[in-house]
Specification:
By secondary structure, this protein is α+β, with helices and mostly antiparallel strands. It has two domains: 116 residues, Rieske Iron-sulfur Protein; 284 residues, Alpha-Beta Complex (Naphthalene 1,2-dioxygenase Alpha Subunit, Chain A, domain 1), CATH 3.90.380. It is 25% helix and 26% strand. β9 and β10 form a beta hairpin. It is globular, with a radius of gyration of 25 Å.
């Protein structure tokens, strides 16, 4: 018997595909977001991947070849030789550049045509080509095991950003790279979604980090220029755990630790488990390039392994069977399961998605402004700045009081963040000690 209530099942009415946010999802050359992203330095490869055997990569929709000369100079160039379009992934690396396999043209790491050996030595045409034309190439900077590139207009090249995370003492940094089979926004969203940590990593898949993660805390979001912070303050027994996720546009991310903090013992301004960028490969793929941070103020040194970095990045190792992924999904399964480009127009965003909404909106605005001729802001406000970051864990012993505990712990999170921001203009060498001392005194004196 067919039910007379035609409103029970909604499948047919929702079968029509819904669209996605093209303004922030498309990152090829010439697209608004693609041009916006090209105003920044991005990591493109691990130093360990680059050798005298050319490697083909794709970044921001461009097919590129990265290589190292026999004198250890790294080049990043367009894939195809400008002579007859042969692929330079088959090129031969020499002391001063890369030579095309097809006709022997030699290119320097900045794209200059050094030799056209198949042409007559007196050829005026060949001479003119060597003088006037260059292979497409991009400036690179190798830093601590990661290769960065700037892929925008040369006259707009910004200063290479220097984050305070590079200078935290007692930290061992391990470069890592994770491939995602989906659009970059899906991966970036997670950093501004503190609630997913409680469910995906603490309930749905069992305890992937610690039991404390499963507790749903009190949320507060901060928008500070192009820095976005999601503060999740949890109660764990007699302790209050303030965990801060961080996004600095367009794609720099940090968070608290994955394994060093569980809410059960005091921790003062423990720093991020990773220092990470989410970089579009094309519209349907992206990569996370990062350092895993290990040591007293990062994650425990025993996690300084390939598998440890994967667990910090996504909650689980990447190479697993389908059955394992279904039983214990991590971040990769969650974001890739949305499809290669998530149907944003089918989302029902909630108050807990505030961080996701505001950062997406800002990227749209900055991309539109660039189209009108206004350059986007850089992370450093003035030349030579060391950029202060705030991704962290703080755990303070604060027993419950005879008041509304959820409001109380949220006020503690706010007080911690306010204190942190107040120290922002201090010299880097003094800032961390100042924050740690303040937190210690807050806990000791119950000054909340």
């Amino acid at each position: 018997m067919v039910s007379s209530n035609n409103n029970i099942y909604k499948g047919y009415g929702q079968a029509k595909p819904v669209g996605y946010d093209k303004e922030i999802s498309h990152t090829d050359y010439g697209t608004p977001c693609g041009e916006y992203l090209r105003r920044y330095w991005h990591p493109v490869a691990l130093t360990s991947e680059v050798s005298t055997t050319p490697m083909q990569i794709k970044i921001l929709g461009e097919d590129l070849v990265i290589f190292k000369t026999t004198q250890n100079k790294i080049g990043l160039v367009h894939k195809n030789c400008p002579h007859r379009r042969a692929s330079l992934v088959y090129g031969k690396c020499e002391s001063n550049g890369i030579r095309c396999c097809y006709h022997g043209w030699l290119f320097s790491t900045d794209g200059e045509i050094l030799e056209t050996p198949g042409e007559h030595s007196n050829s005026k045409q060949a001479e003119q080509v060597r003088k006037k034309f260059k292979l497409g190439a991009y400036p690179i900077k190798e830093f601590n095991g990661i290769v960065f590139a700037y892929m925008g207009p040369p006259e707009k090249t910004p200063e290479f950003p220097h984050y305070d995370a590079y200078e935290i003492s007692g930290i061992t940094r391990r470069p890592y790279k994770i491939n995602y089979n989906c659009n970059w926004i899906q991966v970036l969203d997670a950093i501004m979604d503190p609630v997913h940590t409680s469910f995906l990593h603490g309930q749905s898949s069992g305890i992937q980090f610690s039991e404390g993660f499963a507790e749903v805390g009190e949320l507060e979001f901060f928008e500070r220029g192009i820095q976005y912070l999601g503060c999740n303050t949890r109660r764990v027994d007699d302790n209050v755990w303030v965990r801060v996720n961080e996004l600095i546009l367009p794609n720099f991310t940090q968070a608290g630790s994955a394994f060093a903090a569980d809410g059960t013992k005091s921790r003062y301004f423990g720093r991020s488990s990773f220092t990470r960028w989410v970089v579009p490969v094309d519209d349907n793929h992206c990569i996370a390039l990062a350092w895993g941070n290990f040591g007293e103020r990062g994650d425990p040194i025993e996690h300084n392994t390939k598998e440890g970095c994967e667990r910090i990045e996504a909650g689980e190792i990447m190479d697993r069977t389908w059955e394992e992924k279904q039983k214990r999904p991590g971040d990769a399964e969650a974001v890739e399961g949305m499809g290669s480009i998530s149907a944003h127009k089918g989302e029902h965003l909630m108050p807990t998605d505030y961080g996701v909404m505001v950062y997406r909106r800002r990227i749209r605005t900055l991309a539109k402004n660039l189209k009108k001729g206004k350059e986007p802001p850089q992370p450093q406000q003035k030349k030579g700045d060391i950029i202060r970051t705030n991704g962290q864990d703080t755990i303070l012993r604060v027993p419950k009081r005879n008041i509304d505990d959820r409001k109380f712990i949220k006020s503690i999170g706010s007080a911690v963040m306010k204190m942190q921001f107040g120290a922002e203009k201090m010299p880097i060498k003094d800032r961390d000690n100042h924050i740690i001392n303040k937190l210690t005194n807050m806990e000791k004196n119950g000054a909340f």
